[in-house]
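Loading example: each entry is read as two labelled lines plus one structure line.
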Amino acid sequence: MLIRKIEDSLGQRARVFLGFLGGITTLAFQTICLTMTPPYKRRRIFEQSKKAGVDSFLIVSLIAFFIGVIFSFQIAYLMRQLSAEMYIASIVALSIVRELGPVITALIVAGRVGASITAELGSMQVTEQIDALTTLATNPIKYLVVPRFVSLSLMLPLLTVFADMVGILGGWLICVFKLGIPSKMYMTIAFDSLQFKDLFTGLVKAMFFGMIIAFVSCYEGFNVEGGAEGVGKATTQSVVISFILIIACDCFFTALFYFIFP
Amino acid sequence: MRTIEIRHVTKCFNTKRVLNDVNLTVEKGSTLVVIGRSGCGKSVLLKHMMGILQPDAGSVLIDGRDLWQLAPKDLNELRMHMNMVFQGGALFDSLTVGENVGFELIEHYGMTGVQLFERVEEALSLVGLSGIGNLMPSELSGGMRKRVALARAICIKPEIILYDEPTTGIDPITADAINELIRSLHDKLNVTSIVVTHDMKSAYKVADRIAMLFNGKIIAEGTAREIQNTTHPVVHQFINGLAKGPITEATDSFI
């Protein structure tokens, strides 16, 4: 009896998971096809870019700054024991540009913008606005998903560049004013340790994170059921799934780039 | 003007069969009212006619063309000649009333400026709401939202209009004005209309024919007079709003 229940539960979960996988793959495929199909509504892409990028700039900068500060302190703790404080700058710069910048930016945007997209599309779904779009001979994916997909794919790398700079600045603040490392030396070591491939891999990851946020948040919004409660559930689910997929995708790309750019 | 045919349409949601082998024909330029209890599948039937929902079995034909055999582009082309008024209005929250009403003109015809303003105002004045183009939907009452939705539906002068409970939740005077509008669109523009409602006063006023949906099937169809004089016990109970009768005694045994 218990085994049967466990089997049923696992079967149900497998069905839900496969349904999600199929649904999000279909949505991703349709979105990419429709992105390349005219007409291109630039105004909507600008609107979404403002919401996703410009409006997130302050919070991304603030958190990246704190991460830079915290990270410098933690590295300094270890490096002091080894009498190798001069390496703090290069470790901070490399970690932020290759890893922390893209991931922290993506997690902030998933929580802030992804949740808002799911809530907005979910509300549209329960109030039949998405059906109304269809009746008005407008493809809801073209109208709603494509601008969000394009803007998030472009804005995530841009925000990541800002997060990288502010994060390195946070490290500079600690190194210069707390650890007594000369400002010029910090900058020289930090930027000398960086290569183009470090920035490139970080930005490629950021672009994929943007796509993940767009697809997950739109998919969850489109599949809301059950009114306001459903919108709440979908929003939570959207953030949780985005977080998991961002970290999983980061793991994949880190391993991939390790072999491609050894 | 276009004909709508519903042929052997069946639709299930999970284990519940909402439509069960439904057959219905709406002649060009006529108004069909579909009546039935709340939750009996009237709106689902309407969404099949618009191509929003795909039937599990059967087909929906507009002028002999099966909606689900058409390419997406052709289906959208066909939808440019149809429109639907949703129960809650389904106005886009992020757009102004004017942008909502002129949505298709902006999106598909690239209309702007004075020409757009005139068309939007014309549609809004038909529903008695001229001059509110700059308001947001959140600033409107329920009745006004419904009328704006109606203005959006008629703005492109469609040949088919589907109405989902157009008079539910609004005051009797506005409801009568909407009934008059549906009737005048039929009389002046020869629009083919399908109205889903359980408001019998509205049904008698606008209908050329009335069909009743019960337990997933069309159980009666006829003119308003024929429906009023029916001996069918289910229809009789429904149109007279009786608490006791076969509808309330019936269980959901058809599932």
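Residues 91-157 of chain B form one domain.
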